[in-house]
Each structure stands twice: as C-alpha cells, then as structure tokens.
Description:
The chain is α+β, with helices and mostly antiparallel strands. The protein folds into four domains: 2-127, Immunoglobulins (Immunoglobulin-like, Sandwich), CATH 2.60.40; 144-281, Sandwich (Immunoglobulin-like), CATH 2.60.40; 291-407, Immunoglobulin-like; 486-602, Four Helix Bundle (Hemerythrin (Met), subunit A), CATH 1.20.120. The protein has eight helices and 33 strands. Strands 22, 24, 25, 26, 27, 29 and 30 form a seven-stranded mixed β-sheet that branches. A hairpin with a 2-residue loop joins strand 5 and strand 6 (82-97). The protein is elongated, with a radius of gyration of 38 Å. The chain starts with a helix and ends with a helix.
Amino acid sequence: MRKLAFLFVLFLTAGMMAQAADVTFKAVAPNAVVMGQQFRLAYTVNAEAKASDLRIPELADFDVLMGPSTSSSMSTQIINGSVSSETAFTFTYILMPKKEGTFNIGAASIKVKGANYTSNAVSVKVLPPDKASEASGGDNSGQSASIGKDDYFVRMEISNRNVYEQEGFLVTFKLYAARMCGLENAKFPEFEGFLAQEIEQPNPQWTQDHYNGRNYFTVVLKQTVLYPQRSGKLTIESGKFDAIIRIPTERKIRSIFDEFEDAYTNVRKVLVSSPATIDVKSLPSGKPASFTGAVGNFTMTSDINSNNVKTNDAVTIKLKISGNGNIKLIKSPEVVFPNDFDTFEPKIETDLKTTTAGVSGSKTIEYMAIPRYAGDFEIPAISFSYFDPKSATYKTLKSEPYKLHVEQGEGGSSNSPVVSNFSNKESVKYLGKDIRFLKVKDFNFVANNDIFFGSFMYYMCYLVPAILFIVFFFIYRKQVKENSNIALVRTKKANKIAVKRLKNAGKLMKENKKEEFYDEVLRALWGYLSDKLNISQASLTKDNVETELTRYGVDETLINEFMDILNTCEFARYAPAQASDAMDKLYELTVDAIGKMENTIKKQ
C-alpha cells in the first residue's frame, strides 16, 4: 500500500508539472503608434483552468481607456488519431499615449491553479502626428490615386561615416512607404573596397516610423556589416529597386456585378537610394611586432595538452581568440617551437555571429608539433596584438610560456641508427638487418663456336656503357650540385607549382566557387613569391615583397600589378558574389603577371 500511495503521488506530481510546463503567458502590443491613436495591449494565457489575479505594471505614460475585457478561445488538434485541445484566455486593455517617445511596458503576472506566471515585456514607440495628414485636414486614409514624390523611397542608413581601416560599421537599407507595397528586382551595391558580412533577415516585418515630419510604413530590406580594406574616401554606390504600388482606380459601375470587381491597379515606381562616402582613416603608427591587422576588441586564452610527453608524441597548443571585430581576417599568431620539433599547419575553427553590433564570436587555432629528442624545452609566450578603435590604441595579449619535459619514447634510443629518404619527416625506420645472403644457381656450359668473348659485340658492350656512364656521371654531378642549392631548386620549381595551382583555380572558376577560387589564386601568388624570392611564407609581407622584387630589378609597374592582384583577391574573398567575367579577368591578369615576372627574373 505504501508503494502504491507513493507511485500515485509521484504520477500526480509529474502530471501537475507537465501541465505547468505547458502554460504560457504572453503580452502583445504594436511596435509603433501615432500620438493620439488608440491601441490594444493584450495578455494571453493558455490554461485549462481559468486564470485569475492578473497584475499589470504601472502604465504612467498611457491613459487606460478601457479594460481589462476578457475573452476565451478554444482550439482542437487531431494528430495521428490523438485528440488534444487548448483553451486560451485573453485580457485586453485599450490605451492612448500621453506623449511622444519610446516606452517600455514591464512584465505582468497571473495566477493559474495557484502557480504564478510572468509575461514578457513590450516596447511601444509613440510617433508624432503626420504633418501631411494635418495639412490635409486629418485625412490619412491613404486612398489617394496620385503618388507623391516623397511617398515612397529607400534610405541607406549608415551607423558611422568616419572609421578606421578594418573597423566595422552597419549599413541598413530601409524602405519607406506611404502605404504598404511590394518590391521587385532589388539591386544592392557591390560594396567595393569593403569586406561585407550580411545579417540574415529571415522574416522582415512592416512597422511604422517618423521621418521628415511624416509617418511611414517601413521595412528593413538588408543589413550588412562592412569592414573597409583600405584607407581614404570610399564610396558606397546607389541601390535600385522596383516598388509595386496598389492604388484605387475611379470607374463607373455599369452593372450590378461591377461592384465586386477589383477596383485597384498596380503601379511600378523605380526607387534609387543615394550613394554615400565613408572617410576611412589609416591605422596609426607604432604597430607592435605581433600585430597582423586585427581591429576590434578581443580576448585570448591558451592551453597545452600536456607538459610531459615522450619523443614522437604530439604536443598540441590550443589558442582561442574571442571578441568583436574583423575576426574572420585575423591571421594565426606565431608559436615558436624548439628547433628539434617537427611542426605542422595549424588547424583553425571559427564560430561567428553577425548582428547589428558587428561580427562577434571566436577563432580557435590548434598548433601541433612532434618532439624527436628527449630533454627539457620551453615554448615562449604567444603574443597577439590588435587595434582598439574606441581608444585608438594598440593592445597586446600574451599567453604564459610553456615548459616541456620530453622523455625518450619506446622504439629506439638516443644513439640508435636511423635511415631516412628525407622526402617525408615521418618516413624514418630503424635497420633490423644489414646482411642479405646471396643465392647461387647452377652453371651453364656453351660450345666454343658460341663464345661471345673477342667478338665485335663484345667490345661494343664495354664501350657503349662506358660512354653512357661518363655522360650520366656528369649529368648526375650537375643535378646533385643544383639540388644541394635549395634556393635554386625552389626558384626553378616556382613557376611549375604556380601554374599547377592556377589550373586548379581555373577549374574552381568554371564551377563558380568564388571563395575557393580566390583562395587558390592567393596561394598561387604567395607560393610563387615565396619560392622565387627564397623567403618563407610566414615571413612574407607586402612590404618586403616590394623590396625584394625591386632588388631583383623588377619593373615598378609589374610590382604594382602584383600588389593590385593580391589586394583584389583579399577583398573579393568575402565580398558579395562577383560576376563571372570579373573572375575571368583576374585569372588572365594573374597568369600574365606570373609570366612577365618569370621572364624578368630569368634575365637577371
């Protein structure tokens, strides 16, 4: 009996909790109203039992004309033969604003079956009266057949027109309409010179707003966060939009059926947003050595997988950079591992979110290295610098240095002999044997007249291999000499590797994979310059590339052509979709520039 009573109480409690979890209490009010206009504030609760003890916040900024009036509704659903019903109670107040401005109405509370529930808060913007409506004697029906010059337009609203290079700002395209209308063939500008991060608009909603003395229905068409990629005055071009406006038509009724016909017609009006100029300031001097172009506000954390490892075990350092700014363009900070460690390309993961406040999130960089010798090592502190546009200063973040103890792993000792083909750092094997036994076969006897010794072919068999040996010996010596010069090998192979990457870029271009195409072109250019100038890619910058090319005697025009291609690729990687002819043109320019560079450097 005790067990049965316990189970009964348990099921009863679970049922009550399930019912309580299904109860929702929601407040609804319009986003914007006009001064002198009444509006409804409604509180809805879904519950099987009637709700009671409704308590609303103080409405000091509004006059309560009526309420609360109570109504109820019931809905029934049948899903897979299962019938469910829901009852909702609505409490409605009729309010009128006392003054203009934006006012917050706090949360209300209600009681259902002895449990208290809290609603959401709402915000109501009270707009001033429409001056155009007042001038026409208060007629705001909006049924005039004529379309005024200021009845419909698109504004490009910019949050900040004076920014630093790589500092983000918000661009909003908003449609203002005397009456709600449709929109077709929206053509937004290309944002040339900016990195664009678009904010998703899953379900745009009409609302009311006040502008230049008039009240309009407005809807946000597009919001984009832009990051200028160079300093100077950059222009955002105009956008072009086709508005479909429904206006009433005047015609005489010829039969009793005419009154049921549609008495409206659609008018197309072309709307053009005004261009805007952004003043982009250069980043100030005094950049720290660890600054690689990050602009915004960031934090950094780091950790290591272990401070005690064995030889040939992986050491992993995980670096996480979080904040708001041009986080997508942040280059990986340099981690200096000891010379005896084999290092690998870092693994990068990004978690980004674009809002009206900018691009925020994190970039996680995982560095991996493998120690080959036992001992005690130290990995220096990792530095990351960024420019904070709010304080107009550079800031540097540093991790702690890591002390690493490496013990000798299994499979070898410090004095064990090894062999390697030097083509792969991992292809190292210990010799198990150094002697192989010879296999002996039976002798074969031949007749005297078949003896090959002393014949013409006998001497030719000695002479031809000797000549070939001498020829191949000199060729081999030449190749060994050239291969020992790593810089010469890299220089010779630079063009072949670049051509291979450009062929791959051409395939991506045909498949219309824009971002992968520009990434492959960038890799081809930087790889070519790294091999040709014998400088590691980690040390390559636009400044030292210009210096080295000048030292090689490359013409300034060709240098500028290379820099323009690099800049165009970097800008276009995250810009809005480019036309295919733009990628074709860039591809041809890249192939032509590498060909000119190859011919120029060969002559030196």
